[in-house]
Design goal:
Elements lengths: L4 E6 L3 H12 L4 E7 L3 H11 L3 E3 L2 H6 L5 E4 L6 H10 L3 E4 L7 H14 L3 E3 L7 H12 L5 E11 L16 H17 L5 E8 L6 E9 L4 E7 L1 E12 L3 E4 L11 E6 L9 E6 L4 H15 L7 H20 L12
Parallel strand pairs: 1-2, 1-4, 2-3, 4-5, 5-6, 7-10
Antiparallel strand pairs: 7-11, 8-9, 9-10, 11-12, 12-13, 13-14
Helix pairs in contact: 1-8, 4-5, 5-9, 6-7, 7-9
């Protein structure tokens, strides 16, 4: 059996051509064989720059290619579910960018599609495969910081461009969908629980109407997580995990570099000036290569994908609840996900 899975890419999105495709090309189990765009010249240019053998002038053409086994979908948020469904119905496995949908209900529709077509579908939360996150959860669960009780996160960048797709409300733009999903996801990942209720506060851009500053509190049975995300702020990101005996800090939690080691800090709490902090280097890796290989191996070997639809639905249900809370001014419960 051929080891490498042949992938096709829908669109020439920036994240695809700058990060995901180069990462997958470094993998041992993934081979990017085709790329498509509604503009054939754009597809051809991307293929030429990235050394991809085939370029198509429509997404439909790529899905008709019998050699393509799996599809990476980095299209705008409102196109995630429609084109994931089309790819699945064409018999292709699908790795779809986050957030996988515009609502939890829309994400839930992918369950029946997956079960009917028999393909694998997953959400591209690459951080869930990065060794620094596996190590962070390992430290927390080892008891080194005592019982995990609180999580604090921050993620921001500065992008006031009204022409940027991340700032178009009807396309699923805004800070919560684009980057707030990360502290939600990693909080769920480390707590290994789902929030019982959430509270959200949102400030919207007066012209673009997208949320440009969002803060939220998530109440878990084991503790609490709070985070702020912003799209018109100084770029910054950090995640802190506080236990009864210590603290773990992830220095570059989301845009982990692929050219140098990552660092996490373990603080025993003995010195507020940092005397009790020890750093731990995580070996250099490309999280997009790791993500692609884990998904490809799941295809070849029959295992589960890193972030299945069930998890994507649960994350979207929290996003939905934060949005509802910002409107109602009250605590809101995420959609029931017990049956997923």
């Amino acid at each position: 059996m051929r080891k490498k899975v042949r992938w096709g890419v829908l669109g020439v999105a920036s994240i695809a051509v700058r990060k995901v495709i180069p990462g997958m090309q470094r993998g041992e189990w993934s081979e990017v064989s085709a790329i498509a765009s509604r503009d054939r010249q754009k597809a051809a240019a991307a293929a030429n720059n990235l050394g991809i053998p085939k370029a198509y002038g429509s997404y439909e053409e790529l899905l008709l290619d019998p050699e393509i086994e799996a599809v990476y979908n980095p299209l705008p948020n409102q196109l995630h579910v429609p084109w994931t469904i089309k790819a699945a119905e064409a018999g292709k496995h699908v790795l779809c960018e986050k957030p996988i949908s515009l609502t939890a209900g829309e994400a839930r529709s992918l369950l029946s599609v997956r079960d009917r077509t028999g393909v694998k579908i997953g959400e591209a939360f690459m951080v869930r495969t990065h060794p620094q996150w596996l190590r962070t959860r390992e430290i927390v669960e080892s008891g080194r910081i005592g019982d995990l009780r609180a999580i604090m996160g921050f993620f921001s960048y500065d992008n006031p461009d009204p022409g940027n797709i991340r700032n178009v409300l009807e396309y699923g733009g805004g800070g919560l969908m684009d980057i707030g999903c990360y502290p939600i996801n990693t909080s769920r990942f480390v707590f290994r629980e789902e929030p019982l209720r959430v509270m959200g506060v949102i400030e919207r851009d007066p012209v673009m109407k997208i949320d440009r500053l969002t803060s939220a509190m998530l109440e878990f049975s084991s503790g609490q997580s709070i985070f702020t995300c912003g799209t018109q702020l100084v770029p910054y990101q950090r995640m802190n995990f506080f236990g009864t005996k210590g603290r773990v800090e992830v220095e570059i939690p989301f845009n982990a570099p692929n050219d140098r080691p990552c660092r996490i800090f373990i603080d025993d709490g003995s010195d507020l000036f940092g005397g009790g902090v020890r750093s731990e280097d995580i070996a250099t890796c490309d999280q997009y290569a790791v993500q692609g290989d884990m998904f490809s191996r799941a295809i070849r070997e029959g295992g589960g994908v890193p972030v299945p639809i069930e998890d994507a639905i649960k994350n979207m249900s929290v996003i939905d609840a934060v949005l509802r809370s910002a409107e109602s001014g009250k605590w809101e419960k995420p959609m029931a996900t017990d049956a997923i």
